[in-house]
Design brief:
It contains six helices and seven strands; from the N terminus they run H-H-E-E-E-H-E-H-E-H-E-E-H. The protein has a seven-stranded mixed beta sheet with strand order 2-1-5-4-3-6-7, with helices on one face. The termini are far apart. 32% of the residues are buried.
């Protein structure tokens, strides 16, 4: 059922991309379930400095897996960036994603995995492809850049201007 939903989601948004492709310029309020802790994570808990990266992904998506692997390989460069992996898939799928592609993400202090049990992310952020990354300035909560369907972590590193 999740696979069918994902296929429908991708098909729908590819057809209507011009209508939905506008990323929010100011970070909207949200509340998602935490995957590895009990309770909700809402936008009030976001950091007040640095960068915030929201990565809307599907654990079975090859591009998402490549981006997750890239982030895991560059955790040291990204240590001052708060990254939130947001999926509409249940914990077993997230576990599989981490175990197969990005084990280092599980224990990284600046990484959180969140679960959208409905369509809140889609409604608020209007993604049109997987992965869909939204980079916000934490202080002003304004959009720095939106990467849609990008799987090369070097593009993310360039935007964040992090050096090795």
């Amino acid at each position: 059922m999740k696979m069918l939903f994902s296929i429908c989601f991708i098909s729908f948004f590819c057809l209507f991309k011009p209508l939905f492709a506008q990323a929010p310029k100011v970070l909207p309020a949200f509340s998602f379930d935490e995957v590895y802790q009990s309770g909700k994570f809402n936008s009030d808990k976001l950091p007040k400095s640095g960068y915030i990266v929201l990565n809307f992904y599907d654990p079975g998506c090859g591009h998402c897996q490549k981006m997750g692997t890239g982030i895991a390989q560059h955790l040291q460069k990204l240590k001052n960036v708060s990254i939130y992996f947001i999926s509409m898939n249940d914990k077993p799928y997230v576990d599989g994603f981490i175990n197969m592609h990005a084990k280092a993400l599980r224990t990284a202090a600046n990484i959180k995995f969140l679960f959208d049990s409905g369509t809140q992310f889609i409604e608020k952020f209007k993604p049109s492809n997987y992965p869909s990354l939204y980079i916000y300035d934490a202080k002003t909560k304004t959009l720095v850049k939106h990467l849609d369907g990008e799987d090369d972590v070097n593009e993310l590193l360039k935007i964040l201007a992090v050096k090795g």
